[in-house]
Design brief:
Blueprint lengths: L7 H39 L7 H8 L7 H34 L11 H14 L6 H21 L7 H24 L3 H12 L7 H19 L2 H7 L3 H6 L4 H23 L5 H13 L6 H21 L7 H22 L5
Amino acid sequence: MTAVVASPEGTVDAVARDRVRRASRRRLVIALLSVLVVATFALTLMVGRTFYPMGDVWRVVLGEQVPGASFTVGRLRLPRAVLAVVAGLSFGLAGVTFQTMLRNPLASPDVIGISSGASAAAVVGIVVFGLSGTAVSTLAVAAALGVALLIYLLSSRNGVAGTRLILIGIGVGAMLNSVVNYVLTRAGQWDYQEALRWLTGSLNGTTWVAVGPALVALLVLTPVLLGQTRNLAALQLGDDTASALGVRVERTRLIAIVTAVGLVAFATAACGPIAFVSFLAGPIAARLVGPNGSLLVPGALVGALLVLVADLVGQFALGTRYPVGVVTGVLGAPYLLYLIIRTNRAGGSL
């Protein structure tokens, strides 16, 4: 019996077809996610206690004066919807960056303590120092960057190990959460309500003043992060392999961490730490796109869609209004438990 051996030409053709198929699937997923984000964004502007047709919404967006709609859509719904997209894109990009760089699905900013740093600083600023507005946001940004630097330094012995960074980050986050709990016991009623925004994540009362810094950070930092796409992909192969391919490992990792933390910091300063968006965006995007290829763009779009949908659900689907972070927390917590149980049964490590 004669064995059939595939020709080199046939193998090359098969590989080429597979690449074309994966690229087509990726483009299709990105296109569908983009359409869903735009459609959900439009729906967010239309629905509420008063429904406005798309024609009126579009006229408001173009700057025309429409009785009733100009205030409700232009000043209340539009900033809220824009911040939902900006925060979702920022959290999604940051989560995918950490998960790709450290090769671990648990390596998202809200799991490893970075978001906790911003929240703790904001709560201390509100309750202890009586700060508000821009001062609280500035303190939250500085604290997120400081906590990220601390975690990086504590985990950087002989290079940054993903598992070590995650465990240190979880420990730092636990300490910061204990600080938050202690400070809240000393808070007055008004300060307590204001501080809750920094614990759950909320889009309520969003203004253009809050949207501006987060939007600028997204526009400035996203190109920097996308410029590291190939280097981040190489890091998935391991530090030694990435170095052999010409990647400056520590430089790439530092740029990625600073950029991702900046996105998280400014988004958190605008709307608080919307739970588990960074954690969920990457895995969902990976399921949609399939193996291989960067998840930065699909993950960012999934993050935006998650925040928009969760905000709609929190406002209108549950009988009473809940902050968007409560809804995303309900979605993310079971997945976190599932991931830990699955990893433990497989005999792997986090």
